[in-house]
Structure formats: C-alpha cells, structure tokens
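The following block was generated as part of the benchmark described in Methods. Ligand: magnesium ion.
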Amino acid sequence: MIELKKFRRQYNYAFIDEDTKKEIRRKLLKAICIPGYQVPYSSPEMPVSRGWGTGALHISLAIIGKGDTYKVIDQGDDASVNACNIRSFVEKTAECKTTFDTGKASVIQTRHRVPEEELTEDQIIVFQVPDPEPLRQVEPYTKITRQMHAEGDYAKMWVALYESYVQTGDISKGPVLVNDRYIMSPSPIQAWDIPNLNNSRCLNLFGAGREKRIYAVPPYTKVEPLEFEDVKFNINDFNGAACKRSGEKVAFLEEIFNEDGKTSYHMVNDTNYLDKIMDNNRPKQWNNKYLVKKRKELNN
Amino acid sequence: MEEGKDWLLKVEGLTKIYGNPSEDTVSRTGPLFNSNICPKTGAVVACADINLTLHSGEVLGIVGESGSGKSTLVKLLYFDQESTSGAAYLNDYEDGEQDVLKISNQQKRHLKNHKMGMVYQNPRDGLNFRFSSGGNIAEKLLMADNYHVGQIREKATALLTSTEVPVARMDESPKNFSGGMQQRVQISKAIANNPPLLFLDEVTTGLDVSVQAKVLDMIRRLQKDMGISMIVVSHDLSVIRMLTDRTMVMKNGRIVEQGLTDQILQDPQHSYTQLLVSSLL
Ligand SMILES: Nc1ncnc2c1ncn2[C@@H]1O[C@H](COP(=O)(O)OP(=O)(O)OP(=O)(O)O)[C@@H](O)[C@H]1O
Ligand SMILES: [Mg+2]
C-alpha cells in the first residue's frame, strides 16, 4: 500500500477512500428521504468479512469525524469481542473518541439491540443488518420483491404473518411498516426494541454489507409493527422476572443458565444501562405505550 | 349492444399477440386461414377483436378447441397478462367509463381483490403451495381489507365446508391435496371476497366424473345463492350446457358464433360449432 506521507498513515482517514465515503453519504441522504426504502450502495471491501457488521461499519466510517464519540454494542454488550474489535478499528482509523456511555455517544453502532436509554436528536444509531429484505421469506426473486415494494403489494407478507400466527400464535417477530409506505426489516432487534423506532428523536440508519443495501428511519417518523385487529404485536414478556444484580424488571432481560444447565437467572441485557442503575445513576428510559403498560402492570 | 345499468363487464376489440406482429397479422390469421400464426412474422394471435358484454348475474360460456385463446381471454380480463390492444369496462368502476386495462397495477390489484375471482385451469396458478389452504383463502380476505384473524378463520372454515374440503386440513398446504381438492380450495379462495365477477377456466378438467358433478353442482349453487356473474371457459360442451345461459364459440383466436346456449346446442350455425355439437352426441 502507498504510504500517505501527508497524514503519516498507511490508509485514508476513516479507512475508506473519500469518493466512496461520499457515495455512501449520498445513498444515506436518499435513504433518509425515502424512509424504509432499501438503497443499493457500493459496499466496499473491508478488513472484516461481509456479514460481520460491514454495512454498519461503512455507514459509521462515512459519517464519523474527529469530533465524534463512538460506541459499539453487540447484543447490548460494549465488551464483546466483536464490539471491541470494531470499536478499536474505528477509533484508530477515524481518530475519534469512544465511550461505553450511551448518553455521551454521538454515533452508536449496534447489533440486535437498541440501548435501553432513550436516544436524543443529537445521536445517530447505526444498525448491523444481515437480511434487509423482509419480503425474502415470501419471494425469492429480487426483481419481484422490488416490484412488490414499488407497488405496495404486501399481500404475501400479510399471509406470512397469518401463517406465523397459525403456527406459533406469535406475530411479534414480523416486520414494520414505515411512514405508511414501505415494509421494512427492523434488523434483528428484539420485539422489546421495535416500538422505540417509532417517532424516535434520533436518526436510525441501517446497513447490510453483504446484501449491499442501506436504509433509514429519520427522526419523528411513524414506524408500526404489522398486526391484526384481534391479534396484536407485543414486546417480550419476562413473566415478572427481575434482574439478579439490580432487581430491575422493566428492561430487556437476558436469561442466563447456571452450570447445572437447568436453573437460570435473569440479568439486564444492556450492560451500560445496568452499570448506571448499579451506580444509582438511572438514565431516562424510552417511553413507548408498551413500556407504559408494562410499568403499570408491574406496579400493581 | 344494450345500454342501461344492467351490464357488468364490457369488452371491446380485445387482442393479444405473442411475438412481433406485422400490420396485417390480424387480417391474415383466424378461422378463414385455420391458423393463429402470422405467415409473415410467425407471431401468435392468441385472441383478436373480442367484443362481449356480460350482464349482472349472467353466466357466459366460452367454448372452443385447445389453443383457441380461451384461457388468454380470461387472463387478460383478470390482468394476469397485458393486452396488445382493446378495452374493458366494469360497470361499477368509475361509472363504467374507465378502460380498466389502462389503469395502474396498483389499481388493477385493488379491483381484482375487491371485485373479481379466478379459478385457473391449473391449481398451481391459483394457489400458493408455500402457504396453507387457509392462508391462501386469507390472502384474498386480507387484500379485501379484512384484518381480523378470527373472522378470517371463520370465513375460511365456512368456505371450505361449502366446497366440501375437510376443515381439519385447513392449516395444511394444498400441495398435499388431490387435484379435486386443490380445485375446490381454489374455488373457495376465488369466492372468498364475494366477488361480483368470477372467471372459471376449465374447472373440471382432470377430475373424475363423480367429482366433476360435485364441483359443477357446487358452482351452480354458489351462482344461485350469491348471484355472481361468471365467465366459464371450457372445451367440454356438457359443462357449458350445465352452467351457462349464453355461449361464445372461439376458433383460432376469434369468436365464430355466439348466442343462447340452448340455441347453439340445438341449432349450431358455424361449421366448427356443428362439428363440436355433433361430437358431443
Ligand atoms: N406465453 C405465450 N407465448 C406464446 N404463445 C402463447 C403463450 N400463451 C399462449 N400462447 C398461444 O396462444 C394461443 C391460445 O392459448 P390459450 O392458452 O389461450 O388456449 P386455450 O383456448 O385456453 O387452450 P386449452 O383449451 O388447451 O387450454 C395458443 O396458440 C398458445 O400457444
Ligand atoms: Mg386454456
């Protein structure tokens, strides 16, 4: 590789070359203008294999600057191996600050979760997406799924939801309808997190590196889970379980099995949120109608 | 053509040509030439210059030999294929003044979901084998704005009962069903949204005689109970005789004769119809 003497680096700032970052930012603008619409983009080679968060990494690197503070969580955890590697890669190449503190981050990259702490207008959350096309389960051909999106032809998706109800009684894994127009896959985040996309203050960006697609939910945008009149979407229920360390009940709880493989306990999944609660420094949580209901139920 | 409000569907000059037509493709094909292939370009005239009016509550038969363009005609009207030329009007769409072949795909789908039903010659075309039988019926109901699972399942149960498909198999894919059962699931799906207009393409082909009789009986009953207008396509004159009020005879993509079904069967005018009728007896 040619050494860039001017910057004393063996790579361009934020790893990706400027033209490609510009291309990604252009695609992001398009995605923000058409909420929920999947925009094809270049998905350049990275020193990380595709499918390991490259899409979100492209977005993070394309938008980040030296003044930013970057946080990465993998399943709610800042300290997992993948989160650590991605964080130090971005820190090194983009020369930005990093943090575990959700409230202090300006760009948060995530896999499978939305932080428990409510995000603000000053924050951007970037989701790692493995399968951006919600219609793939009912239609194998991209040419046809694109046409279905274009014409708002979501009959098959609804039937799939009906079938999922018939087979499992549950419809809460399904996709969401964005801005009354596009059906979108909310990345594989928990049902618990899906309502937090609705009318959120923060900007939500989604990157699928392997599938070469970017999409977005801008701040204050309507995001509704697909549901029936008599069978409703619901967030996860932990049957009254409480976090073993904090006693917390209204947060996404992870079930952890003991050595015996039979008994288990629960723990708040978002590590930074748990740390703050343990420090008696409880941050402001999201406020969606499902959480309000859950709090009421647990107080009675 | 009769005016007034009692027509449901009007079709004018409907034509479908596969391949590259030349200027005189239509004039050099048809029953006179005993061919639907353009001698110049090899284009296939599946149907041409079809004019018809379907009245409310009426059952119109289309009969003709294999390849005469019967399936193509109903597929054009159900928007499965795009016509080469021609127009179609529905009485209760935009006061019957909008050519529905020219509206957007989205509008076509809305019309299809709310006003039409189709039973295909091949159950594979009408059913999605990746979904259960109930799911197939649900599709039609969901798209006609019924988003209540309880009601959907109730309605699906009623439909399968009336078409004599075991309700216990509602949550199974029709892939596992016999041909006759598949055909009856298809009929359940097609009538789920109480469509005023139903297309039936060779509903009984491939069924054994006793099942055939059951299916025909059922269609007759449905037609009586719900007053659905139908276009019934068949190359089997006994089906036509049993179900239809009026019949059109097609050959090489053209209508060669039309009239009351009884009349056509008793006193066929066109030599081809005479041949058809005599082979029935
Ligand atoms: N996709 C296609 N490409 C080319 N030619 C076609 C296509 N579909 C149909 N045709 C031709 O159009 C003509 C009419 O076909 P159609 O299926 O409408 O006949 P049909 O009257 O329904 O016959 P059958 O009684 O066998 O079902 C035939 O000559 C057929 O070969
Ligand atoms: Mg046919």
